[in-house]
Write a structure and sequence with these properties.
Layout (H helix, E strand, L loop, with lengths): L4 H16 L22 H18 L9 H18 L2 H10 L4 H28 L2 H55 L44
Helix pairs in contact: 1-6, 2-3, 2-6, 3-5, 4-5, 5-6
């Protein structure tokens, strides 16, 4: 995926608005939050092999074997400037980018510096084609090619990172909007109808039934048995 450097810078300028300008989801929302983009690769892991090769190549260049003239003098100054830059200016930028590989605001200054460094190395390689021996031309070509590939790989990783962050923010906004819509619909819905309360039935009272008496066989009313004398 290719994204222009201007798009990267514009995205970084408005990314905080996307992140902090949206209200948080309601407390009752249960929708899943979109997954964050994959972890970014440290820029030094992409650039360091090419930078080490560039430094060793420039240190091995023998300017006294070049043809005398302004091209050799200019190339010599550029070589010294590149070697000094690799020791002083580039390490802090690389360290900042490595400390937060996912932050494009840290990688963009490094990328701009690498572009300028590539232009200077390109001028040295072009001057070598005119004034340097063939073996030194080949060494500079190889160093320039390796550095150019590493620089493009870093830019592509930044572009992929920007696209992933943009997609994550878009998905997050869609999730928040869906949660807010669901919450608004829940509040706007009429309350459920109350369930009618049926009073309990009164307990049935049992009727008392008089005990049945058996009439005597002779038709005379029954007599109470004589009272028994109490023992003394």
């Amino acid at each position: 995926m290719q994204i222009s450097r201007g798009t990267l810078i514009s995205f970084m300028a408005f990314a905080p608005v996307f992140v902090y300008g949206q209200p948080g989801p309601p407390a009752t929302a249960a929708a899943p939050v979109p997954a964050a983009p994959a972890a970014a690769v440290a820029p030094s892991s992409v650039l360091q092999p090419a930078l080490s090769n560039m430094e060793s190549t420039l240190n091995s260049i023998k300017m006294d074997k070049w043809k005398k003239g302004t091209i050799r003098e200019e190339s010599s100054d550029n070589v010294n400037a590149i070697l000094k830059d690799l020791k002083t200016n580039l390490p802090p930028l690389m360290s900042d980018a490595d400390s937060a590989p996912g932050a494009l605001s840290k990688s963009i200054p490094l990328m701009k510096h690498l572009d300028a460094l590539y232009d200077v190395l390109l001028r040295v390689e072009e001057g070598a084609r005119v004034s340097a021996p063939g073996d030194q031309v080949d060494q500079l070509e190889a160093a320039l090619k390796q550095f150019g590939i590493a620089r493009i790989q870093l830019f592509d990783s930044m572009a992929d990172r920007a696209a992933g962050q943009e997609k994550h923010l878009t998905d997050l906004q869609a999730t928040i909007k869906a949660q807010q819509t669901a919450e608004a619909e829940r509040k706007a819905a009429p309350p459920p109808a109350p369930v009618p309360c049926t009073p309990p039935k009164p307990a049935a009272r049992k009727k008392r039934v008089a005990p049945k008496t058996t009439p005597p066989a002779n038709g005379q009313p029954a007599q109470n048995p004589p009272a028994q004398p109490k023992p003394q």
